[in-house]
Amino acid sequence: MGEFDLIRRFFQRPAAAGVDVGVGDDCAVLVPTPGARWLVSSDMLVEGRHFLSTVAPERLGHKALAVNLSDLAACGATPRGFTLALALPRVDEAWLAGFARGLWALADVSACPLIGGDTTQGPLNLCITVFGEAPAGQALLRSGARAGDEIWVSGRLGDARLALEVFRGTVALDGAGFETVRAAMECPMPRLALGQALRGVATAAIDVSDGLLGDLGHILAASGVGARLDLDALPRSAVLAAQPADLQRTCLLAGGDDYELVFTAPRGVRLPDVGVALTRIGVIEAEPGLRVVDVRGDAVEHGLKSFDHFAS
Ligand code: ADP
Ligand code: MG
């Protein structure tokens, strides 16, 4: 199968609403919504770095788009479309069919059509760029947190890191426990509805991709504030809660790959109910720095850092 047959077969569909021209010409042509601003983000997935060769292609298709949509969610954007740049070692039709199935399924439920891309031969590598919109002035940024705001997180933290430790062989879980945390690692659901509902409510937001400490740290740095974080309040699955305390702490604070939203909001403000659990995990303080405390309010020494590709 040649390059253009491959694109037609797996990645081309009739243009969606709001797309004048999709896959098949030199550029996609999108219809902007009056008064809206574009929000654009890219994420690359490299085999061995961001995913294991053991992942099912359908789940990889899902995750490649999910991590990108998570950035739109963090900014409160409504998805409008995405491009897919793909390097493939060879044309494996079964692999491509699975990958495309996972990709299209999430694209469809997120109303985010595939509008173009690039396909080349090379080591397996996926790069998606997402395009979203938000009303002018309403995008959620990292820079709006103020002393006294409460810190909230959606869903649960730490399961993806626990799954990674099982793959690394440092932790053993029973079959059901492993499937729970593996699904968290391989099939994160971007919190798009929550992000959009937080427009005008949250003062700052970010998605947890590299670990809570680092990602919350980005909000603190951008906002020029500090925070107190309640370790015992961090929401976790029963599987993670059954692990030793130091492993729980690592997964919760520095796990990464969670794709939950962390946001700040003024105390007492009414939070939206979009069917996703929200947990209050701390408070913004004027004093710079991130102080992790236990249920008694005592400081927790953790020595943890979030993931950094170039950290030595
Ligand atoms: P060009 O040579 O003009 O850059 P290509 O030959 O690379 O275009 O691609 C042909 C068409 O197919 C373009 O519309 C491009 O956006 C689209 N395309 C290429 N690869 C992909 C892909 N992996 N997913 C979706 N669309 C793709
Ligand atoms: Mg061209």
TrEMBL record:
Substrate binds at residues 50, 257, 307. Mg(2+) 3 binds at residues 26, 71, 207. SUPFAM superfamilies: PurM C-terminal domain-like, PurM N-terminal domain-like. Mg(2+) 4 binds at residues 26, 41, 71. Mg(2+) 2 binds at residues 43, 71. Catalyzes the ATP-dependent phosphorylation of thiamine-monophosphate (TMP) to form thiamine-pyrophosphate (TPP), the active form of vitamin B1. Signal peptide: none annotated. It comes from Pelomonas aquatica. Mg(2+) 5 binds at residue 210. GO terms for molecular function: ATP binding; magnesium ion binding; thiamine-phosphate kinase activity. ATP binds at residues 117-118, 142, 209. Its EC number is 2.7.4.16. Keywords: ATP-binding, Kinase, Magnesium, Metal-binding, Nucleotide-binding, Thiamine biosynthesis, Transferase. The keyword Kinase applies. One of its GO terms (biological process) is thiamine diphosphate biosynthetic process. InterPro entries: PurM-like_C_dom, PurM-like_C_sf, PurM-like_N, PurM-like_N_sf, ThiL-like. Residues 24-133 form the PurM-like N-terminal domain. Residues 147-241 form the PurM-like C-terminal domain. This is Thiamine-monophosphate kinase. Pathway: Cofactor biosynthesis; thiamine diphosphate biosynthesis; thiamine diphosphate from thiamine phosphate: step 1/1. Mg(2+) 1 binds at residues 42-43, 118. It catalyses: thiamine phosphate + ATP = thiamine diphosphate + ADP. It holds the Pfam family AIRS_C. PANTHER family: THIAMINE-MONOPHOSPHATE KINASE. Reaction mechanism of ThiL seems to utilize a direct, inline transfer of the gamma-phosphate of ATP to TMP rather than a phosphorylated enzyme intermediate. The lineage of its organism: Bacteria, Pseudomonadati, Pseudomonadota, Betaproteobacteria, Burkholderiales. HAMAP family: TMP_kinase.
